[in-house]
């Protein structure tokens, strides 16, 4: 319940970051307006939903129920027992079904706003498909009766496709929600603070392995690298150590977040993506699978939030795919080919062979994505002359190299322009392990010439170089003259 002075409860010190999410949940749970409220909290596994919701219920004297995969009768019995313990009453006589249970839960809000949490709600719906209709009926009855009920029901779930269906336009719950909160991974700056890493280069490497999933620090017993020189040993004693939960986490993640008839195809698709394939056609060709099978597998991974697709910055009809969970990219690029060897050799020997692949196939594209994230989340709008609407990878054919590779730009920034691609604010190249020089700027100028020849307005487009290793004095001089934007690791982690 609220503190005696009526102020909202402070976020517990045990909850790392999540300030905005905490404020949104408290505002919903403490809303004094009459009528029952419904909130939805979704997000992939290991992101801290349960921890946050338990903390909310504890801070406000609310009720928390963690659902499990169980028959309806068992779930109702468990809920009845926990509700009786919460209210200090005798367990209810046998409920006839979810209608009775929902009425009893919502009755908790008859006297005051109170948060009522049902965690992993999809587990209940799988065994009791009529449950959403029962909830809809209970809300309709309360509102039709004009009862002064202020229950604040929060439904949480990790099964993203199921959560989307439960609250889609075709669902009985559509239109009832007052709060929709998605709990995603921590961004790379938050992750560095979580792991207590002050060195940007080390923070980048660790993020390329474990990303921003809060639970993973606990999975390695809070062991963090002692410094840049300790990174390789840290990998060997954590993610490559069979005694740690992180060792098989990539496999468990795929198994828990997908329910596919052919998980082997999903693993192979992720391996293809981790090796450099980025389009549906390239992946199907790499797998030797029909395009329809590859498309179905990729759609499943996208529905579960494991893949993200976005249009190429210069060729919008070309959709590029990337793995959103760094641990999956790390597994399928650097570890997957050596899994069997880990059973015969020590982790240090396996990592010695895998490390070059990690640097080229994992860290390099991860750094480029981090640069795009910096543009969207941290860069001052003045850097590019306007607010960025998108930051994406761009590629286009170079007439000078008809049989060769297309011209690439890892960080293409566009402004806002409604449904159409906006003004081209910046074209940038990202190199994690190269000291960048004037020839990188010349590459960008050549790319701008190609774009101008295709009719793109590039008069105010700003070239940008992103480097994890630094810049030559000549390039720094070009920056001072206003010819290029330079972004190094320190700026990525601390600057705007």
TrEMBL record:
Leader sequence segment: none
InterPro entries: P-loop_NTPase, WH_DNA-bd_sf
Listed PANTHER family: ATPASE (PTHR34704)
The name this protein goes by in its record: ArsR family transcriptional regulator
Biological source species: Streptomyces tropicalis
Classification of source organism: Bacteria, Bacillati, Actinomycetota, Actinomycetes, Kitasatosporales
């Amino acid at each position: 319940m609220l503190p005696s002075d009526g102020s909202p409860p402070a976020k517990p010190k045990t909850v790392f970051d999540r300030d905005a999410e905490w404020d949104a949940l408290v505002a919903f749970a403490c809303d004094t307006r009459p009528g029952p409220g419904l909130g939805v909290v979704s997000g992939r596994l290991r992101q801290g939903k349960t921890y946050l919701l338990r903390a909310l219920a504890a801070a406000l004297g609310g009720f928390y129920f963690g659902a499990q995969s169980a028959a309806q009768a068992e779930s109702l019995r468990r809920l009845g027992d926990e509700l009786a313990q919460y209210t200090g009453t005798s367990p209810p006589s046998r409920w006839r079904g979810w209608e009775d249970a929902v009425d009893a839960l919502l009755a908790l809000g008859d006297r005051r706003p109170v948060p009522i949490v049902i965690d992993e709600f999809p587990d209940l719906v799988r065994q009791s498909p009529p449950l959403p209709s029962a909830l809809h009926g209970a809300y309709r009855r309360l509102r039709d009766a004009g009862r002064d009920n202020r229950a604040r029901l929060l439904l949480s779930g990790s099964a993203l496709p199921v959560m989307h269906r439960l609250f889609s336009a075709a669902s009985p719950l559509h239109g009832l929600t007052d709060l929709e909160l998605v709990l995603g991974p921590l961004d790379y700056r938050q992750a560095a603070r979580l792991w207590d890493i002050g060195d940007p280069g080390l923070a980048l490497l660790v993020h390329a392995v474990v990303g921003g999933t809060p639970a993973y620090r606990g999975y390695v017993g809070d062991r963090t690298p002692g410094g840049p020189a300790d990174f390789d040993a840290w990998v060997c004693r954590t993610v490559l150590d069979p005694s740690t939960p992180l060792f098989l986490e990539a496999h468990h993640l795929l198994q828990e977040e997908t329910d596919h008839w052919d998980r082997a195809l999903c693993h192979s698709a992720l391996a293809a993506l981790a090796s450099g394939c980025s389009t549906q056609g390239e992946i199907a060709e790499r797998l030797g699978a029909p395009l329809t099978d590859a498309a179905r597998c990729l759609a499943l991974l996208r529905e579960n939030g494991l893949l993200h697709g976005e249009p190429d910055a210069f060729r919008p009809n070309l959709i590029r795919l990337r793995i959103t969970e760094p641990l999956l990219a790390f597994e399928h690029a650097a570890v997957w080919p050596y899994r069997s060897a880990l059973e015969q050799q020590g982790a240090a020997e396996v990592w010695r062979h895998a490390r070059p692949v990690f640097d080229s196939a994992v860290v390099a594209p991860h750094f480029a994505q981090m640069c795009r994230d910096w543009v969207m989340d941290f860069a001052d709008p003045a850097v590019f002359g306007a607010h960025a609407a998108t930051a994406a990878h761009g590629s286009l054919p170079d007439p000078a190299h008809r049989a060769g590779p297309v011209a690439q730009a890892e960080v293409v920034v566009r402004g806002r322009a409604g449904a159409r691609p906006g003004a081209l604010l910046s074209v940038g190249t990202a190199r994690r392990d190269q000291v960048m020089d004037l020839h990188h700027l010349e590459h960008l100028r050549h790319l701008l010439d190609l774009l101008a020849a295709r009719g793109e307005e590039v008069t105010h487009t700003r070239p940008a170089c992103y480097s994890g290793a630094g810049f030559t004095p000549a390039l720094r001089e070009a920056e001072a003259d206003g010819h290029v934007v330079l972004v190094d690791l320190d700026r990525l982690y601390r600057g705007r």
